Amino acid sequence: MVRAAVLPAVGAPLEITDIELPDPGPGQVRVRLAAAGVCHSDLSLSDGTMRVPVPAVLGHEGAGTVVAVGEGVGHLAPGDRVVLNWAPSCGSCHACSLGEVWLCANALNGAADVYARRAADGAELHPGLNVAAFAEETVVAAGCALPLPEGVPLTDAALLGCAVLTGYGAVHHAARVRPGETVAVYGVGGVGLAALQAARIAGAGRVIAVDVSPRKEELARGAGATDYLTASENTAREVRALTGRQGVDVAIECVGRAATIRTAWDSTRRGGRTTVVGIGGKDQQVTFNALEIFHWGRTLAGCVYGNCDPAKDLPVLAGHVRAGRLDLGALVTERIALDGIPAAFDNMLAGKGGRALVVF
User: Fold this and answer.
1) Which terminus of the chain has fewer CB atoms gathered within 10 Å of its CB, N or C?
2) Can you give the pTM of this predicted structure?
3) What DSSP string runs through 188-234?
4) pLDDT (tens digit, 9 = 90+) per residue, 91-136?
5) Pairing relation of β-strands 145-147 and 137-141?
6) Are 234 and 204 in contact (CB under 8 A)?
């Protein structure tokens, strides 16, 4: 038996309880978690913004050590250090055939599986977003476990599984930030902090961080922001004022709210790029008129998982970590136990801190 944070129903409080994991079957591995990041997507799953079969063990950003492998698994062995990949590509759907593995049509099929049982009553449990990282150990498909390159601390490596891949990919793959360009990052949480570091790595000339909380300025500047703005109804105007009244070349929206997306768009220069990373609800409606779309010539694009191929991008990120260009620990503002996850959810709702990391 292992301890896990179970979501019994959508909207219900998490329950810290024992669960029973089976031995890994064909094509599966069992992983002992070293750490798991608490992502806003976990909150969105728990409150019903995003769908998840329940009861479920949430958590999709994690790293740990392989303790057992099932039949047919040849690329991993007990003792291997791995990063969990919550969106493994199938390699055969239309998106995968185009090389757009981040849009794989079958990536989340495993989330509907029954992977464990609650020890108290035998209730079937689903793995939230495939990997169920809010637990001391988990059993996942072998494709959900990527070998961790050398030189990266195992605990901090959990952040590579979502926040860093997403923030780095938004800058380098989706927005394709070029040296000298100006960038605004909206939302200084885990993903936003990763995007700020990625903008610095890309050689951005001016990096403006925007958040509702003035208390995040130090965090943002430590990640690479050259300027910090507390969000207000005048934010777009203030961003333009910092950029010679032109607006930024690139705006990265990491919040997922209609008002923030609109502000990010308004703060982007004519011909600039606005990339939306945040996941919003269906009620968040963003409106544009036809004339402004023509006049401004801006590009507005969504971004899934940083438009990354985790298997290819993980070694690149590890290289940045080893070279000191990427500081994973700087994203973490709180290290907690499993029972600290509900409070971490509350902090996200209140706009406090960066990434909370569950350390086992």
Assistant:
1) N
2) 0.96
3) -SHHHHHHHHHHHHHT-SEEEEEES-GGGHHHHHHHT-SEEEE--TT
4) 999 999 999 999 999 999 999 999 999 999 999 999 999 999 999 9
5) unpaired
6) no
